[in-house]
Amino acid sequence: MAEKVTPYKDSNLSKKEQVTKMFDAISKEYDGLNRVISFGIDVKWRNKVVEIVGKTNPDSILDIATGTGDLAINLAKTKASKIIGFDISEGMLDIGRKKIEKLQLNNTIEMVLGDSEKMPFEDNSYDAITVAFGVRNFENLEKGLSEIYRVLKTGGIFVVLETSIPTKTPFKQGYKFYAKFILPFIGKLFSKDKVAYQYLSDSAASFPYGQAFNNILHKIGFIAIENKPQTLGVASIYIAKK
Fold first, then answer.
1. CA distances (Å), 32 to each of 70, 85, 186, 190, in order?
2. How far apart are CA 99 and CA 92, in angstroms?
3. Using the 8-state DSSP alphabet, how is residue 75 labeled?
4. Would residue 155 be called left, alpha or beta, if left means φ above 0 and alpha means ψ between -120 and 50 degrees?
5. CA distance 163 to 140
6. Would the pTM of this model clear 0.85, i.e. be above it?
7. Is 130 within 8 Å of 63 (Cβ atoms)?
8. Model pLDDT for residues 69-100, shown as the tens digit of each residue
């Protein structure tokens, strides 16, 4: 089992509460800093997720851990009639709502506050469910994935974009150096919350990526599972069905 990584190591709050506090604190700087940290490549990865989901012609999409809504907004390209952006941080959702209003997507996208491990949706509600850089923030990974399985329609598609660690030399060593030293340094320079980007680095390092995550998806009950490493393996797109 992966080590449980939390943002504030000396806090008595649960991981869920700590993650909420952290994302509320960094919500205003999150988008810009992410572009810098990923060199803008995260935009390309999200576009691939949209392409994969779009091929299934979904009418309803749930984007979990939507944050400021980047992926939910991009998913509007699928022509789905209903897209829900779901997140535990009101600070992040507030930024997302402003972007959605500016793009006049209010009739398509709704931002909803809630806990991904206990969602207020009925069984078999969505044609497609996506999570971008969010599953590693679940307090209980299997519980969160079970909830996703529950609200996904039979035959529906589940797509996850998450960080992973390159397996080939020298990319593996280069990634670990960047994640351990460079990413937290940039975060401390530009972020009000000095521990946030250390947490994002640590949680990425401890996440069960690749075949290990495939195995968890299989255990939950998902089928037709595949994962596609992106950009030398620094991220992966996982695809599964119910």
1. 12, 20, 12, 10
2. 11
3. G
4. left
5. 18
6. yes
7. yes
8. 999 999 999 999 999 999 999 999 999 999 99
